[in-house]
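TA notes, week 10

Several of you asked for a full example with nothing omitted. So below is the full record: structure tokens for the whole chain, then the designed sequence directly under it. When grading your own attempts, check the secondary structure regions first.
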């Protein structure tokens, strides 16, 4: 609390003085040069007698604010840990390369391979929808683009599914990421 006779500093100016009067929020001070000035109480900083010597030294260094900052220690940092849902972090990855799906791929026709890949995609997508998994990445490879085109056609049949190219840095061009919209009626 600032009262008559206290030594004060003006916060955003290089000015100091002694309080002559306090009227509500307005404080009248007399500067060291003899001028009478009025300030809001919010613009003033009371100088304790033991700080007096340090403040005088601060004005010779050029900035009162710099010396006050020297006195204030580093502020403790507060960390607010964000609560994350495990579902949001989990991304189901389904590798549709034929060698990952079956050991007998050498004897299969291309049509049979494509059918197996599409059946796997459909069953994994249905499972994810039933278990409320929000994202799936289908890794299909680059190839000739037939499987990718068939996948796009399959995903277009589902109203609660949005498909787009997956993260290029992680999967390259050969993957499609599917978002499953929740609570669709």
């Amino acid at each position: 609390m600032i009262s008559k006779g206290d030594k004060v500093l003006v916060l955003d100016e290089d000015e100091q003085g002694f309080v002559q009067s306090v009227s509500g929020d307005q404080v009248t001070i007399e500067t060291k040069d003899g001028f009478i000035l009025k300030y809001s109480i919010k613009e003033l900083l009371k100088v304790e007698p033991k700080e007096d010597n340090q403040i005088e030294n601060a004005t010779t260094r050029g900035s009162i604010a710099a010396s006050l900052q020297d006195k204030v220690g580093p502020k403790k940092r507060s960390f607010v840990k964000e609560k994350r849902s495990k579902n949001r972090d989990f991304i189901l990855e389904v590798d549709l390369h034929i060698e990952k799906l079956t050991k007998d791929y050498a004897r299969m026709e291309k049509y049979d391979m494509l059918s197996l890949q599409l059946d796997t995609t459909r069953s994994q997508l249905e499972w994810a929808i039933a278990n409320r998994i929000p994202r799936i990445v289908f890794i299909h490879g680059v190839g000739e683009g037939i499987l990718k085109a068939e996948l796009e056609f399959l995903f277009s049949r589902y109203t609660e599914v949005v498909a787009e190219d997956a993260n290029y840095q992680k999967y390259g061009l050969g993957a499609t990421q599917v978002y499953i919209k929740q609570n669709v009626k």
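Residues 110-130 form the longest helix (21 residues). Use that as a sanity check on your answer.
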